[in-house]
Design a protein that fits this description.
Layout lengths: L2 E5 L2 E5 L2 E8 L4 H5 L6 E7 L51 H5 L15 E10 L12 E12 L4 E12 L4 E12 L25 E6 L4 H5 L12 H6 L9 H15 L8 E8 L8 E13 L2 E10 L4 E10 L9
Antiparallel strand pairs: 1-2, 3-4, 4-6, 5-8, 5-10, 6-7, 7-8, 9-11, 10-13, 11-12, 12-13
Length: 337
């Protein structure tokens, strides 16, 4: 069964996830030393899904074509970061209880964390094969595993996972690594974890491109159509308890829309022109904020892919995405102001 959701001019077909299995293996001393407290592999087998297109790309970038072609156009291309959303709904076809889902798979040898006090930390994704606009005639799996659970003391704990989108018996399409930060849930005696690698923008250099995006008071509610039903982005109470004053935007909205901006300004609106993408969530965004992304070409290449660095801030205010880095095939620079 395919679930069809409509909102005004938006049409989004949500993936049909038809089965789920978990495999838990033993913990080794080597795993503990590296911060991997337990090997936890989760496989989601994906049934038919079609990535939808929205005519206003700035509102729901994760569900759109890059070039604004309609879904049945021969040039329609799936937006490359779409797989980052697939783990949220799992086998469900309706709105899920986000808090129950986030705590449904305990991690052995680690405390039970409270998903009501959790934020995105950092996410990266590597694009290994272009996504098809439909999975008809194919079988896909999401393969997830825990990379580490790290104790950051009074500040909290970090939970890091890796998820790959794989055609069953065939190719790997994407590999994503993400971290969740559990606020003020540390000091349990776990490993501190490795030092992170930082990618600051070049000092004293003007950005090569600038991309702006105006959110609205409705943006967070619209983004829920992607399948991320965290109440933090819909009702004021969770955000008030966490000190944000009310509902905030999904971190992945800023993350995905910034990737969309990179492709528009430097990539010729072609998803084939990006190989890797990552950013750290530095501060919350409120619905109605205007986001400004500054992008720098640093002149370094890796196997023919040019390194690009970026940061996104609220206009006139704080940085909301830091440590931004991408590997791209850069085309003409086109700023969107």
């Amino acid at each position: 069964m395919i679930l069809l959701k409509s909102f005004g001019t938006i049409t989004a077909i949500i993936p049909d996830l038809i089965s789920r299995s978990c495999k838990l293996g033993p913990t080794s001393a080597k795993d503990c030393n590296s911060g991997l407290l337990a090997r936890l592999d989760i496989v989601h087998q994906l049934g038919y899904f079609r990535i939808a297109s929205a005519t206003f790309l700035d509102s729901l970038p994760v569900l759109t074509s890059v070039s604004q072609d309609q879904e049945l156009h021969p040039n329609f291309k799936s937006f490359p970061t779409y797989p980052i959303i697939l783990p949220f709904k799992q086998t469900d076809q309706e709105v899920i209880d986000y808090y129950a889902r986030s705590s449904s798979t305990p991690i052995p040898n680690a405390p039970k964390f409270d998903g009501r006090r959790a934020l995105d930390g950092q996410r990266s994704i590597t694009f290994l094969k272009p996504l098809p606009p439909t999975s008809a005639g194919k079988q896909f799996e999401l393969r997830s595993k825990v990379l580490g659970v790290y104790d950051k003391g009074k500040a909290g704990s970090v939970f890091e996972t890796e998820t790959t989108l794989v055609e069953k018996g065939g190719d790997v399409y994407t590999k994503a690594v993400g971290s969740t930060f559990f606020v003020r849930q540390g000091n349990w005696g776990g490993p501190k974890g490795p030092n992170t690698v930082n990618f600051p923008p070049p000092e004293g250099k003007k950005p090569d491109a600038v991309y702006t995006l105006q959110t609205t008071k409705e943006s967070a509610h619209l983004y829920r159509l992607s399948g991320d039903y965290n109440p933090l982005h819909a009702t004021p109470e969770p955000g008030q308890k966490m000190g944000f004053g009310g509902a905030i935007m999904h971190g992945l909205f800023s993350w995905n829309s910034t990737c969309h901006g990179l492709l528009q300004t430097l990539g010729g609106s072609d998803p084939a022109n990006i190989k890797e993408y990552q950013a750290r969530f530095a501060a919350p965004v409120k619905p109605g904020d205007k986001l400004v992304t500054e992008v720098w070409r640093v002149g370094e290449f890796k196997e023919g892919w040019e390194e690009v660095r970026f940061l996104t801030r609220v206009k006139g205010g704080k940085v909301v995405l830091s440590n931004g880095r991408a590997l791209m095939k850069c085309k003409e620079v086109k700023s969107k102001l």
